[in-house]
């Protein structure tokens, strides 16, 4: 479909009423900023905390991530099924209350991950497994409902893209502040281990405040009657419907690629700054410039999707990402070039991140159109199942590779170890970005033109649906 056809299809899809206020969008962004204050501590610093502070072998520490994230993936599916089939839905909505209920337990479990008792190595590993798996389960209870809300907030395609961009802006603000602010707090303490704990407490408190602000200022504009109690036959039919949703399957697989690449970069950049650049302040610079570049793509994404199909904007982002990382592998030998090439890579990644939530919302409509079964929570949790698998890979692969190349915590690294760190930082993500382009081009069929037809058909089937006035509760 050419740009003119895409533009016409997009305009048609935008005819659905706009139901989200600026206040709602800001609150949705702040909610994901809070999610990232709580979540990114594990992705950014926990592996390094395990290896350099707790003293766990790198392969064993990486295995903690593998096992915990696979557990989380199944937890997401369970939470999604539970949410979709809740029968006691209050005036607060189907999804919003989970932001209120889960915030405090989530913060406490995050702190527990960075306060490992002085046990034996075996005892420390047991603590790491239990604390991280409980944290992941609680995070699923908070995050699956949060991500499932977009289809209940608006039916307007462009407004969904805007909400996805606002969400990504909040996510990146959380990541930026975590990257900039965490290590200075750690380094200000005489004991680095204590510094980790204090820094985590600070971000945990901020995360709870952000999630509660989000809860108070977002709204589910589309509501439906509570479902009758689910039976095994209906549940089986819902899972079969997910497996028939080819756009959802494709989007989930490419997220396995892109999200593992993104999270692996977050994990490895600590080692890259410390051992290749020998400049720990580079991580704060990376937060300012690299994560800052994601805001550029987040602002550009809604503008580009007005003219071009979301699918092709997504692929364009991956192309930028791959080129920047290939160049970074060969030339990022000092702080300036490292930050420069990583910033361009994050610019490309920002397009994929900004559009993921709009695309998965489109997959909800596609699934209902195809099978007659609408299940926002299950679709979202199926999608996040693959994202959790990607996080498992992102935590496991560095630990295994670091052990394989002979990494020794706190020591001068061998040339082989340094090359392993460099390859993890750049080549892994470049290869997976290219794989994403290929898969999206050949397998993702939900274009704007097709989506417009699907929405029209669904509206005819539904006849009418209740829309509550936009605004906060």
What topology does this entry show?
Layout: H1 3-13, H2 22-54, H3 58-84, H4 97-113, H5 121-148, H6 150-153, H7 157-187, H8 192-217, H9 232-244, H10 246-276, H11 282-307, H12 310-331, H13 335-371, H14 376-404, H15 415-443, H16 448-462
Helix pairs in contact: 1-16, 2-4, 2-5, 2-7, 2-8, 2-10, 3-5, 3-14, 4-5, 4-8, 5-14, 7-8, 7-11, 7-13, 10-13, 10-14, 10-15, 11-13, 12-13, 12-15, 13-14, 13-16, 14-15
Pfam families: MFS_2
Protein name: Sugar transporter
Membrane topology: Multi-pass membrane protein
Largest sheet: none
- CATH fold-level topology: Growth Hormone, Chain: A
Judging from the principal axes of the Cα atoms, what is the shape? globular
Task: Provide the low-confidence segments as ranges.
Answer: 1-13, 465-473
The CATH H-level homologous superfamily:
MFS general substrate transporter like domains
Count of extended strands: 0
Strand content: under 5%
Order of helices and strands: HHHHHHHHHHHHHHHH
Radius of gyration, whole Å? 22 Å
CATH class: Mainly Alpha
Count of alpha/pi helices: 16
What's the domain count?
A: 1
Q: N-to-C terminal Cα separation, in Å?
A: 41 Å
Overall pLDDT metric:
82
Structural class: mainly alpha
The residue fraction in helices comes out at over 70%
Architecture (CATH level 2) name: Up-down Bundle
């Amino acid at each position: 479909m050419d740009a003119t056809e895409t533009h016409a299809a997009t305009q048609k899809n935008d005819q659905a009423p706009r139901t989200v206020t600026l206040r709602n969008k800001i609150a949705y962004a702040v909610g994901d900023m809070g999610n990232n204050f709580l979540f990114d501590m594990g992705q950014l610093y926990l592996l390094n905390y395990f290896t350099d502070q707790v003293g766990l072998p790198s392969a064993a520490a990486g295995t903690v991530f593998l096992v915990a994230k696979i557990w989380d993936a199944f937890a997401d599916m369970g939470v999604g099924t539970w949410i979709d089939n809740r029968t006691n839905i209050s005036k607060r909505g189907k999804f919003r209350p989970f932001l209120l209920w889960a915030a405090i337990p989530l913060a406490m479990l995050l702190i527990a991950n960075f306060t490992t008792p002085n046990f034996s190595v075996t005892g420390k590993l047991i603590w790491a497994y239990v604390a991280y798996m409980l944290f992941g389960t609680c995070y699923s209870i908070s995050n699956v409902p949060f991500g499932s809300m977009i289809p209940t907030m608006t039916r307007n395609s462009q407004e969904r893209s805007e909400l996805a961009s606002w969400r990504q802006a909040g996510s990146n603000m959380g990541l930026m502040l975590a990257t900039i602010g965490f290590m200075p707090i750690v380094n200000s303490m005489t004991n680095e281990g204590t510094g980790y704990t204090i820094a985590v407490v600070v971000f945990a408190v901020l995360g709870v405040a952000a999630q509660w602000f989000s809860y108070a200022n977002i709204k589910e504009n589309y509501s439906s009657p509570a479902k009758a109690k689910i039976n095994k036959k209906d549940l089986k039919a819902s899972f079969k419907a997910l497996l028939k949703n080819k756009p959802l399957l494709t989007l989930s697989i490419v997220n396995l690629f892109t999200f593992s690449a993104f999270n692996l970069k977050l994990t490895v950049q600590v080692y890259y700054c410390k051992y290749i650049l020998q400049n720990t302040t580079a991580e704060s610079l990376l937060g300012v410039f690299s994560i800052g570049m994601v805001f550029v793509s987040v602002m550009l994404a809604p503008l580009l999707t007005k003219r071009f199909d979301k699918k092709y904007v997504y692929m364009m982002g991956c192309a930028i990402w791959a080129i920047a990382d290939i160049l970074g592998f060969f030339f990022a030998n000092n702080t300036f070039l490292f930050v420069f090439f990583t910033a361009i890579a994050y610019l490309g990644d920002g397009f994929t991140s900004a559009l993921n939530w709009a695309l998965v919302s489109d997959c909800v409509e596609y699934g209902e159109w195809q099978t007659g079964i609408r299940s926002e929570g299950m679709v979202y949790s199926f999608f996040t199942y693959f994202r959790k698998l990607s996080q498992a890979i992102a935590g496991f692969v560095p630990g295994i590779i670091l052990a394989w190349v002979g990494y020794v915590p706190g020591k001068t690294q061998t040339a082989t170890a340094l090359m392993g760190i460099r390859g993890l930082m750049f080549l892994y993500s470049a290869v997976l970005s290219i794989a994403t382009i290929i898969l999206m081009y050949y397998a993702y069929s939900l274009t704007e033109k097709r989506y417009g037809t699907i929405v029209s058909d669904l509206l005819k089937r539904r006849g009418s649906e209740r829309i509550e006035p936009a605004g906060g509760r």
